[in-house]
Recover the amino acids of this structure.
């Protein structure tokens, strides 16, 4: 199984490649006052208006200005698409081994890590989209 590696802050995360619809450069986002903090705003994507989500804020990190490395990872979710803003998309990786997240990660991150992937030069938290985006919908 291959994974897309990306960074948010100084953390490396990954998604299974089959969970990613596409990766695009940052697009124009229309902000909405008094919205939920993790929703950066709205944008037109595939002929529909969709909420654009800051993965930084959703994971409890402070938002930051976009850079030339900022990307949007578009993931399919519940019959639609959710654009997730990340700081940088790095590479496609196959991990050598996996471990369950430590209990403190499970509690702190509310189960958003499915597992931790390890390869020769780094490790990454493999995100569980159902938990991550389910928490967004509940809030």
């Amino acid at each position: 199984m291959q994974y897309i590696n990306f960074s948010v802050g100084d953390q490396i995360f990954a998604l299974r490649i089959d969970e990613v619809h596409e990766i695009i450069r940052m697009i124009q986002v229309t902000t909405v006052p008094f919205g939920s903090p993790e929703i950066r705003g709205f944008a037109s994507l595939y002929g529909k208006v969709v909420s654009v989500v800051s993965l930084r804020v959703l994971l409890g990190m402070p938002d930051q200005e976009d850079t030339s490395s900022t990307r949007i990872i578009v993931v399919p979710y519940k019959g639609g698409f959710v654009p997730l803003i990340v700081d940088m998309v790095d590479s496609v990786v196959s991990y050598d081994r996996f471990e369950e997240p430590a209990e403190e990660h499970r509690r702190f991150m509310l189960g958003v890590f499915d597992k931790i992937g390890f390869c020769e030069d780094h490790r990454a938290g493999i995100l569980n989209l159902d938990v991550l985006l389910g928490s967004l919908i509940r809030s």
Q: What stands out?
A: The chain has three helices and eleven strands. The mean pLDDT is 89.
